[in-house]
């Protein structure tokens, strides 16, 4: 005769499953931040790709653990809507950047030492930034983390948690922000205080960006608008930096 598990047993097993999933998510976040630090504090060729590799492996493991394409915002039913939103976002952001470049006082904000030449800016915008930044970060934050949290928490809580993590994610990458950007260094300085203000500003800005990305992901059900906005800000921004240098 088949034994039917008692409700208390099923409840205990559900609790254990949730605790195990949270531990797994925390472990992933720790690995992510370690990968980000490794990428920025080492100068090996392979370390440039460590976040990309981490995102790829984490995505495979997440699917193996039970997440579905819809949890990533990659469900087939969302493709058409996602493409419409993504196209609109890119057009609007690129147009806004073009207008800003035409205003001399705003042009200095685009002066980034990393993108002084147009060929390198184009390579970065269409190859390196998508593969090393945009796709990995969106898969990790708006895919795995947000998708996992939405299964267990309210939308507001899930979006808020991933936004805070996204802001903290940029602490390391913002360490040299004021030194490499003339517009920011002119506003807050390049000393210790300027560096701290640059970090706080970057964390606050990217945290708020994380809310926008999370809202887009939930509103459209698609990861494509998030990818589009992230690329438009970073990729189009890199090309804009090159043009800003050329325009003097």
Automatic annotation (TrEMBL):
Keywords recorded for this protein, A-Z: Hydrolase, Membrane, Transmembrane, Transmembrane helix
Pfam families this protein is in? Rce1-like (PF02517)
What residues does the CAAX prenyl protease 2/Lysostaphin resistance protein A-like domain cover? 120-235
Is RNA-binding one of the keywords?
no
Which InterPro entries does the UniProt entry name for this protein?
CAAX_protease (IPR052710), Rce1/LyrA-like_dom (IPR003675), UCP026622_CAAX_protease (IPR015837)
Q: Which GO terms describe its molecular function?
A: hydrolase activity
- Where do transmembrane segments lie in this chain? 21-40, 46-65, 85-106, 118-135, 156-176, 196-216, 223-245
Question: Entry's PANTHER family?
Answer: CAAX AMINO TERMINAL PROTEASE FAMILY PROTEIN, SLR1288 PROTEIN
Can you name this protein? CPBP family intramembrane glutamic endopeptidase
What is the scientific name of the source organism? Gordonia hydrophobica
